């Protein structure tokens, strides 16, 4: 396998040899709490959006835009400003003259996954439509609606001075705490007496879902309060005076059921109907899940030039040529030491290439070629 030669550049190689709680590497085999690998369905962020006007620009606004002039005229009219009408009854936009200091913009705000109450403030993002720059601009009072165009509810009002990022485009700006919630947005977490846990993508699998189901069922069945409540709930007296037990409402006699490799439904057991928050809190903080090690995974971020290699990723014996150097992985003489095992690790190959100052782009090309050839024994994830 021959590599294309490129100028030597900074080679950034991050080896995944960190613990299970690290944010930078891949989790090692071990026990993690349910709340660390799952979230509750319904607890998602919501986007508010709207159209607005930015004023105070330095001649970098919309030029010769009829839509911007019309929107500005309408806003001036609503505020009681001196804007005239033409003979046909339309707003006299020509009376505004040059409007290069004004720009029409798209405004968005993210409502946190736990919702927001009336009066809360959230950050705002403003993007230009045709303006050259938003530097120095101020967003006029802008109503923000929900993601559905058929719902005219105003959830928030945005306003404030724009702040541009030092290394970002001049056509995008933010307003910290720039939108005030006018309506309460609640994110539901239960439906029909049950909650659904969504497993994180990095550990989602049928095996993990089955394990989550089993651990939750074992934990709930061991709770004394649940057992007592079930006994009281199930024993019923019939009109003829006889006593019998009603049918239980669990999934095949259980409380949790894995729907697929990402979702596990859990019935709220007796005794917790009025305290679902406490029930979810107990599960998230007290149910341990033994997640399979993800050390057989390679994560590649080509844009940033980062490669994260799990320590258990192996490759087939390979001869790799780079410029005038050769590396034989898997036995035999080598220029730089590589595993002598039948199947060397990708980590050892990366160490050898790094010692030869091989650019990260070439390392990524090698990994892609090994994967395509079927000589890389592990999962490759591109971000």
Helix/sheet category: alpha+beta
Mean pLDDT: 79
Overall body shape: flat
* CATH fold naming of the largest domain: Dipeptide-binding Protein, domain 1
The number of domains: 4
Total helical elements: 7
What does the radius of gyration come to?
A: 30 Å
The level of helicity is 10-25%
Which architecture of the largest domain per CATH? Alpha-Beta Complex
CA-CA gap between termini: 25 Å
Indicate the proportion of strand residues: 25-35%
The CATH class of the largest domain, by name, is: Alpha Beta
Low-confidence stretches: 1-29
Biggest sheet overview: 6 strands, antiparallel, barrel
Give an overview of the whole structure.
The chain has seven helices and 23 strands. It has 383 residues and is an alpha+beta fold. It has four domains: 13-29 and 294-382, no CATH class; 32-42 and 189-291, Dipeptide-binding Protein, domain 1 (Alpha-Beta Complex), CATH 3.90.76; 46-62 and 100-181, no CATH class; 64-94. Strand 9 (163-164) and strand 10 form a beta hairpin. Residues 1-29 have low confidence and may be disordered.
Characteristics:
383 residues; 4 domains; six-stranded antiparallel beta barrel; alpha+beta; four-stranded mixed β-sheet; Dipeptide-binding Protein, domain 1
